[in-house]
Amino acid sequence: MMKFIYSVFFSLFGLLIGFSQEKSKIWTLQECIQYADQNNISIKKSELSAEIQKAEVTRNKYAFYPSVSASVGGNYSFGSPLSDNSFNNNYNISSNVSLYNGKRNKNNLKIAQKNLAIQNLQIEELKNDISLRVVNAYLNILYNRENVKIAKDQVKVGKELVKKMQELVDAGTKARNDLFQIQANLATNEENLVKAENNLDLALLDLTLLLQIPNKGFDIAAVPVNIDQAKLLYNDSDIIYQKALNWRPEIQRAQLDIENSETRIAIAKSGILPSVSASYSFGTNYFNVSNGINQQGYLDQLKDHRGHAVGLSINIPIFDKFATKTSEQKAIIQKEIATYSLEDEHTNLRAEIERAYIDAKTSLKSFEASQKTVQAQEEAFRTAKERYNLGVLTSYDFDQVRNQLVNAQSAFIRAKYNFIFRSKFLEFYYGLPIKL
Predict the structure, then answer these.
(1) Quick one: which of 129, 237, 244, 412 could link to 357 by a disulfide (CB 3.0–4.6 Å)?
(2) What pTM value is reported for the model?
(3) What is the Cα–Cα distance from 100 to 275, expressed in whole angstroms?
(4) Structural domains present in the chain
């Protein structure tokens, strides 16, 4: 009994430890991207659509095989005007195969295979979009986390100022109104901290919603972002565009659509071609009439009545009410639409890359400018703090300098993460994996 109790205790203890470890899991960017790729519902639905298309490919492959069927029949006849009752039993097996139908089977298989490739490319498009959204959400968490750190630092400084002002008021060197002003500033700083923490919680929630996992206990790994030598990897957006043309799924999908249109034209044209098919059948039967004289037995009749039949048929279209011509015209129009769609995809891709390149250059300039601003504000804050400690600077003026530093720091980290995302966006278009 005690062994059983110990076994249950240690099992529950192990489950609690496992649950605690799972709850405290820290997610890296790569883990978030990989999890989204494997578990996102939209991706799963697209993958199931690809499975349906695989079945369609298999169906078209089997279209080349001959069909085989068997039949068994029985018939019993009786009553007037028949003078005798009779029973007939037959067995038959037959096969039919298409020898030539204008390559329709071959072309249908090509279309099914390309449709499968198109579906897989659509999955890649979806994964790319979700990966970029994950990166953006991940960077947004890092950005808000730094904002929380700045807000906490300001609360810490505010408490120190309140403490120092309290000492000065108690010593009689400062008026109590100055203390009230410092305390009001501290309350504002604490309010800003609450807002920053709330924004961080919302950023974490956004990523969990994107990953479609529970928000409770979720956290991400800190990423040491080194941008001391921040720069764009490419001096010309055309380099990125030419590279993207070779791998972007939407471009490849549009090209496959054109190829499918050409195949559909060939299928439509085959409507005026003759089709040739061959057939083979084997059968036997049994026949019995009541009161029949010297009738053979059941097995003997089946043996003696065996027969084979081989057939060859040619179907030549003569007039199909212009159905073939109409189908060909529709297929030609569909190809023109697909061609325009490819051009449209080229234009959209060029616009996206040009816009991303301009945004990256602008964000780099903003980052460099905000970096200089922060350095200047930090120096101004240091000087102001020294003057404030000496009693030369009023609490109001000191708080103004401190607010300017906070604003500069917030602008800096916003520019930093904006540039990181924009630069990674360009690298992604170039075909490089996303890494921080």
Answers:
(1) 237
(2) 0.79
(3) 5
(4) 26-65+101-273+317-430 (1.20.1600.10), 74-100+277-316 (no CATH)
